[in-house]
Amino acid sequence: MTEQSAMTEQGRAPSGPESTTPSETFAAPSDAPVTSTATGRAATEPLREDIRLLGGLLGDIVREHAGTEIFDLVERARVESFRVRRSEIDRGELADTLSGVDVSEAIPVIRAFSHFALLANLAEDIHRERRRAVHVRAGDPPVASSLAATHAKLDAAGLDDAAVGKALADAVVVPVITAHPTETRRRTVFETQRRITDLMRFRGRTELTPAEDDEVVAGLRRQILTLWQTALIRLERLRIEDEIEVGLRYYDAAFFEVIPAINASLRADLRTRYPDAGLGDDPILRMGSWIGGDRDGNPFVTDRIVAMATGRAAQTALTHHLEQLTTLAQELSMSSRLVTVSDAVIELGGGDEGDVATDEPYRLALRHIRSRLLATARHRFGDEVAPLADSFVDTAAEPYAVAADLLADLDVIDASLRDNRDSALADDRLLTLREAVRTFGFHLSGLDMRQNSDIHEEVVGELLAWAGVHDDYAGLDEPARVELLVRELSDRRPLIRPGAELGELAAKELAIVTAGAKAVADYGPEAVPNYIISMCTSVSDMLEAMIMLKEAGLFDPGSAEQGPRCSVRVVPLFETIEDLQQGAATLLAVLDVPLYRDLVAAQGDIQEIMLGYSDSNKDGGYLAANWALYRAELDLVEAAEKSGIRLRLFHGRGGTVGRGGGPSYDAILAQPPGAVQGSLRITEQGEVIAAKYAEPVLARRNLETLLAATIESTLLDTEGLGDAADGAYEILDDLAARARSAYSALVHDTPGFVEYFTSSTPLSEIGALNIGSRPASRKQTEKISDLRAIPWVLSWTQCRVMLPGWYGTGSAFEEWIDGDDGRLETLRGYYRQWPFFRTVMSNMAQVLAKSDLGLAERYSHLVADEELRARVFGMIVDEHRRTTAMYFAITESDDLLADNPSLARSVFNRFPYLEPLNLLQLELLRRFRAGDDSPQVRRGIQLTMNGLATALRNSG
């Protein structure tokens, strides 16, 4: 968005309520300055036009349905926000304007600015799509991060087929959808956004007559009106059931259309380039989920929730396959009088001689396939889920046992079409459906199960005591624990019997894991592929999880003839900086246990490790956490090579830089050598999910980015340090230690810091206002270490400090350089040459650009203790100045967003619209904390949180 947009540029003349022409809603003063962007004003004019249109329509609707007084208040707030940005007035004047606003007036103002942020997001997404199309039509080289650009790089590298085949033998890229408190938009809002996007895209791509354009604008007005009159948030606390449905909506919205197509085209492209690589048919791109399986600190996850999460996922997959089969049968109407059909298709259809349906053999075969799939759905879910709705069904059909059987039947049709010169038909819907069955099976996505190692210890201790194996497991040292656990894991005898009287926690935990085992039995091993151990620090932590899996029947110790087997991988999650530093030692130690090493061998010699970006950042700060992760990956790669296993890393990134966020392509290319190896799992959450995957065009671009970066990191040298690597690593060791020290001096060592944090941010309101389904803390304490990373980052983001994304870094650089020009030049060289360092700096700059210490200072006044307020906020201000100065010195730039002009444009012009949201949030927080607990005040605070999250796009 550029400065003169719908809310900054004068639009068309005002019109009446019935007109489809938007008024000059939210128009800026005529002397509003015009700032050209790096891409040129002409290139961004369509974006300004789109936002002018959408903002104008929104303004008309606000005036018509909220009244002139509300509209005037919105306009006054908007105009004064721009005057604040231009330093024409003090921020306090705008704050005074909003300070006495009745909450009944504040809420529509908050909604107006929140809706504008949402519409601006849509317009910017469409503009990026438009600019990409311009470059393609102009014959420009493919944009970096696209698969086309990756293929060009691979072609230039002249790679050997055998090397490519080996590197990509087990290739898999899995975005894992997780729940997030600020990504809770209702399906109605989600669908309305999609319709607005479709209308805007149609308007931009089609030559319309004036009457046709008026019709499209009228359609946009209707959708924005629907948006305005639909509640953005729920009144009740979000349940896990709601979060499950939110995650599933992206499949119909984009994943079903995009993922099979990407898998098919990528496989074809790679096979064309490397015909002798021996690449298989397994899809590289798959989906995962944590929603309903992640019970770490979430007491609301139960066995019923696990059953619902896996069941609803399977229902979604089967429903999609059934719908596609119905459409495919309509399309493959070829007559046996006109085409040749294989005997296998005729046999598959099973029609009786003389049956008129045999004249359309493909339809008859698809009737048989669809009947079997319907029987499969009915067998699992009953008639309510899969009713026999038409006569195109054989009620006596046998259900499919596994998705591979369905695929085999579809392959029969595919082979017949290709053998009879109908490849064009085979490569359309049938190809997409075959890929969908390969990718989604009967399970849709893999649900990871996760629990904290402390819980495992407590539960396993109770099981061992109940079985009479040991009365005090918690009192054993690590070697004794490992010895005992290995002995139990080597014996098929379960520790407990059905009906055993256990404590509430142990009974609940075993029921959850047993529900996971049932999902595996019902939907296949892909339904629950991983068991993740939070705060994993030792071998016993991993073996305790295996005891749980054994009790549920998922782990089998095997016999002398056959080793141990388990369809579920045990995945340690290394989260704190110390755990990351000890991660490789933990991996080597567990692989020294023969039983565990045999299990890894049975699982293809692949060991997955999860890396926690959030807690490591909360523990040690931005630079220290990023370097601890890089160092941990280097050590894990070395340990894997030493042990003869293949390493698969799972990156637990959040939406924000403070939780590992930032551009995915750059982040993956910044991984150390050997860390990717054809495989990548990565969490996606919060507003980032909607920003990346809300509709097919966005989804394809962002999924391609993950694939492109994974392939490049696997097959090409992306680190670029060469022989200078060891020296660079030593310098970053030093810098990380200094950064952690500076961070700890504030967060862990400053008396009263917790009080400052909880008072100056909306942390307590996040827990009190029904935001998200899980508590804000793992335990009922006030320790920073027990606080969940999402509320930690979300709180700092809402008050615009953005502390987790930069604090401590400036001190580290300043201390290490210490006026030495040679050292400064060393860091400048790393910035130019080393993707890791450049990405760390770029992501930090993005956060600094989104911070606003003027607003943050106003939040600091929520702290009653004046001395504490001055001391802590003073430290924040000093470090912010120091970090910004060091960024400019190292990058040799005076612009935080010089390397990201599109974000610079968005930040510069969007942020005045955040000003009223922040100031109104502050006002409502004061009222709430003063005792005004009215539903409207609570709802107003929640609306500001959602509005700021929408506008910032990566807030938690």
Outline: globular
Mean pLDDT: 88
| Lateral strand order in the biggest sheet | 3-2-1-11-10-9-8-5-4
Distance between termini? 23 Å
Give the total of beta strands: 11
Sheet-strand content, in percent, reads: 5-15%
What portion of residues is helical? 55-70%
How is the quaternary structure best described? Answer: single chain
The largest sheet, given as strand count, sense and whether it forms a barrel, is: 9 strands, parallel
Alpha plus pi helix count = 38
Low-confidence stretches: 1-20, 27-39, 656-661
Rg on CA atoms, Å: 29 Å
Structural class determined from secondary elements: mainly alpha
Any chance you could write out the topology, listing elements then pairs?
Elements: H1 41-66, H2 68-85, H3 91-99, H4 103-137, H5 147-157, H6 161-167, E1 172-177, H7 187-205, H8 210-228, H9 240-273, E2 288-289, H10 303-331, H11 343-349, H12 361-381, H13 403-419, H14 423-440, E3 446-447, E4 449-452, H15 453-466, H16 478-489, H17 504-523, E5 530-534, H18 539-551, E6 555-556, E7 565-566, E8 569-574, H19 577-581, H20 583-591, H21 594-602, E9 606-612, H22 613-620, H23 622-643, E10 646-652, H24 664-669, E11 679-684, H25 687-693, H26 696-715, H27 725-747, H28 753-760, H29 763-768, H30 789-798, H31 809-817, H32 821-833, H33 835-850, H34 853-860, H35 866-891, H36 901-910, H37 915-929, H38 935-952
Parallel strand pairs: 1-2, 1-11, 2-3, 4-5, 5-8, 8-9, 9-10, 10-11
Antiparallel strand pairs: 6-7
Helix pairs in contact: 1-2, 1-4, 1-8, 2-3, 2-4, 3-37, 4-7, 4-37, 4-38, 5-26, 7-8, 9-10, 9-14, 9-26, 10-12, 10-14, 10-17, 11-12, 12-13, 13-14, 15-18, 16-18, 20-23, 22-23, 23-27, 27-31, 31-35, 32-33, 37-38
